[in-house]
Design brief:
single chain, 6 strands, 154 residues, 5 helices
């Protein structure tokens, strides 16, 4: 599986192709997509985890349908920057997915992304707890992907 440093990812991808961002949770996968110019990330979908083969099939269908050239996967590092079991699980997910469909991958530090998104949804949008539960993971995926896109422009 081609795993790239984020700064090397654009050179590995055809121009004018979107990227997908993933927030891999224990029970769900938040999915976001960029525009073809890779300037703006938007929440796309929430995949409720069933088993890997079904989850991967849904993701591959999205990737193929949108002509996606890369995945930016949130990497849940510990606060000290080390990788724990959740980060290892994200790397394993990427390896297993690559066996089914080759794709360029980069990981983006996602520390506190869900917390930041929750705060935004509460303070700025005043969403109820039930409504937040419906949007937080896909919004976190957009937050992760947008962070990566912004980092590439800096």
């Amino acid at each position: 599986m081609p795993v790239f440093d984020l700064t090397d990812l654009p050179a590995a991808c055809p121009p004018d192709t979107p990227w997908i961002g993933l927030d891999l949770g224990e029970n769900t996968i938040g999915v976001a997509v960029s525009d073809t110019s890779r300037m703006i990330a938007s929440p796309l979908q929430l995949i409720r985890k069933v088993k890997f083969s079904q989850d991967a099939a849904q993701l591959i269908k999205l990737m193929n349908g949108r002509n996606v050239s890369a995945l930016v996967i949130g990497l849940p590092l510990n606060m000290d920057g080390t990788e724990g079991p959740r980060a290892q699980s994200c790397r394993a997910f990427a390896r297993n997915l690559e066996r089914l469909r080759p794709v360029n991958v980069a990981f983006q530090d996602e520390r506190l992304s869900t917390t930041a998104v929750e705060r935004f949804l509460i303070e700025e949008l005043d969403l109820s707890r039930k409504r937040r539960a419906d949007v937080v993971d896909r919004t976190a995926a957009a937050w992760i992907l947008q962070g990566a896109l912004d980092r590439l422009r800096d």
